């Protein structure tokens, strides 16, 4: 029998994973942040997943971080800026040889967790699935996509990937997970800040090809300096392809700013600029973009990191 999963963060992506694992019969517990949230969850009767317009309630067992049972497999489904603090709350329960699965977008939060809990195996996940919260504990599965899972320190795939097969969660085991995460980070850096600063849908960015070209050029240099040449190859062409494919959409960062939610800028553009500095690389376009974005975020009363 597979070890139980603990899902930390019952938001959009955590809810999407938890409901699919639960209905496949995989043993699972949600970890909610405090007694009030646990009471609200119990009042809701569970997590509701809405797929293709049909909604279904899943009464997944839930507990607080300080519950007693050891945690063998922890899926961290918080935002990047909350991930380390959230793991710290359950860290005393981590079993020897536990695994921590990290769903965060961008980079930086994963490395902090690897460094702080070296006895756990950390699996990094890059997801292109789409989900959002219609209301508390009501999750809409909004877009099909893929999940790449990988461990930069150890190539061997874990046996519990069979749980994902049972749950019909799309995935691939990636030997080059850092390549996947850096590539997605670079794409997000090229598109999302410009969409916020121009207050526009992705497609309108095609009206300003020159800034996009210069950003992709600097991002490719950063990727190569970080020893990710595969993530750099053909970056501009892919950015343009994604802009065309998502022309009618507002980027996730644009949606966050419009809704007054904190962005993950510190783990996206902030991370690219930090990596450039660490490698002694001059990136004036990226630095100026970060500066303008941070000014706008502060004007909206949002954290700039
Ligand atoms: P979300 O805000 O919907 O959910 C995060 C949840 O974590 C919230 O319910 C929050 O209350 C909870 N949380 C925060 N701190 C906690 C703590 N200490 N203990 C317990 N719970 C805690 O976020 P999301 O959209 O699911 O995003 C999660 C990550 O996945 C992000 O890095 C995001 O970029 C990435 N991602 C999301 C999507 C998507 O479609 N939503 C797609 C790809 C990647
Ligand atoms: O991932 C995205 C986002 O909005 O966060 C896309 C659509 C690819 C734009 O960067």
UniProtKB/TrEMBL annotation:
GO cellular component term of the entry, any: cytoplasm
Record's protein name: 2-dehydropantoate 2-reductase
UniProt xrefs under Pfam families: ApbA, ApbA_C
Gene Ontology annotations of biological process type: pantothenate biosynthetic process
InterPro entries with a match to the protein in the record: 6-PGluconate_DH-like_C_sf (IPR008927), 6PGD_dom2 (IPR013328), ApbA (IPR003710), Ketopantoate_reductase (IPR050838), KPA_reductase (IPR013752), KPR_N (IPR013332), NAD(P)-bd_dom_sf (IPR036291)
Taxon lineage: Bacteria, Pseudomonadati, Pseudomonadota, Gammaproteobacteria, Pseudomonadales
Domain Ketopantoate reductase C-terminal as annotated: residue spans: 176-294
Record's catalysed reaction(s): (R)-pantoate + NADP(+) = 2-dehydropantoate + NADPH + H(+)
Residue ranges of every copy of the Ketopantoate reductase N-terminal domain listed in the record: 5-151
Similarity-based family: Belongs to the ketopantoate reductase family.
Pathway involvement of the protein, from the record: Cofactor biosynthesis; (R)-pantothenate biosynthesis; (R)-pantoate from 3-methyl-2-oxobutanoate: step 2/2
Keywords: NADP, Oxidoreductase, Pantothenate biosynthesis
EC number: 1.1.1.169
Gene Ontology MF, one: NADP binding
Native species: Stutzerimonas xanthomarina DSM 18231
Function: Catalyzes the NADPH-dependent reduction of ketopantoate into pantoic acid.
Classification via Gene3D superfamilies: N-(1-d-carboxylethyl)-l-norvaline Dehydrogenase, domain 2 (1.10.1040.10), NAD(P)-binding Rossmann-like Domain (3.40.50.720)
Taxonomy, superkingdom: Bacteria
Catalytic class of the enzyme: oxidoreductase
């Amino acid at each position: 029998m597979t070890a139980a999963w603990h899902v930390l963060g019952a938001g959009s992506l955590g809810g999407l994973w938890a409901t699919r694992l639960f209905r496949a019969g995989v043993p699972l517990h949600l970890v909610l942040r405090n007694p009030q949230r646990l009471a609200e969850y119990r009042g809701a009767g569970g997590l509701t997943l809405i797929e293709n317009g049909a909604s279904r309630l899943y009464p997944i067992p839930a507990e607080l971080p300080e519950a007693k049972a050891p945690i063998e497999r922890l899926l961290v489904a918080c935002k990047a800026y909350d991930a380390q603090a959230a793991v710290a709350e359950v860290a005393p329960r981590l079993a020897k040889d536990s695994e921590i699965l990290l769903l965060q977008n961008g980079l930086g939060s994963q490395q902090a967790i690897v460094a702080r809990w070296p006895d756990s195996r950390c699996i990094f996940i890059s997801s292109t699935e789409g989900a959002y919260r219609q209301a508390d504990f009501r999750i809409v599965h909004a877009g099909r996509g893929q999940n790449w899972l990988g461990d930069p320190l150890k190539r061997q795939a874990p046996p519990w990937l069979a749980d994902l097969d049972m749950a019909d969660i799309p995935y691939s085991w990636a030997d080059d997970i850092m390549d996947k995460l850096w590539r997605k980070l670079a794409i997000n850096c090229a598109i999302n800040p410009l969409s916020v600063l121009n207050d526009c849908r992705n497609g309108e960015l095609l009206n300003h090809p020159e800034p996009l070209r210069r950003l992709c050029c600097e991002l490719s240099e950063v990727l190569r300096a970080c020893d990710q040449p595969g993530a750099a190859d053909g970056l501009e062409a892919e950015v343009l392809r994604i802009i065309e494919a998502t022309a009618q959409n507002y980027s996730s960062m644009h949606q966050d700013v419009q809704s007054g939610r904190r962005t993950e800028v510190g783990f996206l553009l902030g991370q690219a600029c930090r990596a450039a500095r660490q490698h002694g690389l001059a990136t004036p376009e990226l630095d100026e973009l970060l500066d303008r974005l941070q000014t706008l975020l502060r004007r909206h009363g949002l954290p700039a990191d």
